[in-house]
Amino acid sequence: MNPIHIVVAGATGRMGREAVRMIAGENHFKLTGAVARTHTGEDIGEVIGVGGLGIPLTDSLEEALEQGQPDVLIDLTTPSQVKRHMELAIAAGVRPVVGTTGLTEAEMRELDERCRERGIGGIIAPNFAIGAVLMMVFAAKAAKYLPDVEIIEMHHDQKLDAPSGTALKTAELISKERDEKKQGHPKEEETLEGARGGYRDGFRIHSVRLPGLVAHQEVLFGGPGQLLTLRHDSMNRESFMPGVKLAVEEVMKQTGLIYGLEKVMDL
Ligand SMILES: NC(=O)c1ccc[n+]([C@@H]2O[C@H](COP(=O)([O-])OP(=O)(O)OC[C@H]3O[C@@H](n4cnc5c(N)ncnc54)[C@H](O)[C@@H]3O)[C@@H](O)[C@H]2O)c1
Ligand SMILES: O=C(O)C1=N[C@H](C(=O)O)CCC1
Question: What ipTM was reported for this prediction?
C-alpha cells in the first residue's frame, strides 16, 4: 500500500508539532511539506527535535502543494488563514483535514460544494480527541431526556475564538435531539452583561480562558432532584493525535466535506 502523502500547515505550532511527530511515527504516512508563518528553510524535524526529516519549512502553502504533491493537507493554523488554505488545497485536489476552529456554517457549506465539485473528501474536526467526540455524542443522547442543559468550555488563554468549536458542535448535536425549550427562568435578567453566557437554541454556552488549561468541557444537565455532568479533559496535545490519524485515513475514502469526527466513527 502506498503511504498517504501529507503536508502540515502550522507545522511549528503546538498542534502542528504533534502532528509532524505522529506522521513521522506511522509507516503508512509520509510527510511531504511543512508550512509555517515564517520561512526558515530549516528541516522541520530538527526544529521540533525529532531529528532530520528532509522537509524544509516554507511559508508558502502553494509551494508545498505544488512541490510535495500531497494527498492530504492537515491544517492547524488560525481562524484567519484556514479558509484560504482549504481553498488552495481543494483547488489542487488535495483533501483537507482541518482542526483549526472558527469557520462559519456558511463557509463550511461553500467548502463542501468545492470538495464535491473537485470529487474529493474533506474533514473538519472541531475536536480530534476521541473522548471529546464521545462526550458530544453522549450529551446529545442525554439532552433528549434532560432538556435543561448548559455547556461550560475551558481553554488556555492563547485561544483566539470563543466559544470553542467543540462547544458549538456539542450545541448543534444537542439541538438535533432536544425538544425546543428556553432554559432558565422566563423572566431572568442580567445585571452584568454576559453573565448568563452565549445563547443558542434556548440554552447557554460559557467560555473560560485561563493559563494552565489545555482543552476541557463540561455539559451539565439538570432535572428535578438530579444532576448529570459529562466532562472531558485534554491534558496535552498528544490527546488529539489518534483522531488526526483516523481523519487522515478516513478522508481518503470520502467525497464532500464532513464536519465532525463522529461521522466517521462507528458509534
Ligand atoms: N480540532 C482540535 O482537536 C484542535 C485541538 C487543538 C487546537 N485546535 C485548533 O488548531 C489551531 C492551532 O492551534 P495551536 O494551539 O497549535 O495554535 P498555535 O498558535 O500554537 O499554532 C498555530 C500555528 O499556525 C501558524 N500560522 C499562522 N498563520 C499561518 C499562515 N498564514 N501560514 C502557515 N502557518 C501559519 C503559526 O505560526 C503557528 O505556528 C487553532 O485554531 C486551535 O483552535 C484544534
Ligand atoms: O486549543 C484549542 O484552541 C482547541 N480548540 C478546539 C475547540 O475550539 O474546540 C478544541 C481543542 C483545543
Answer: 0.98
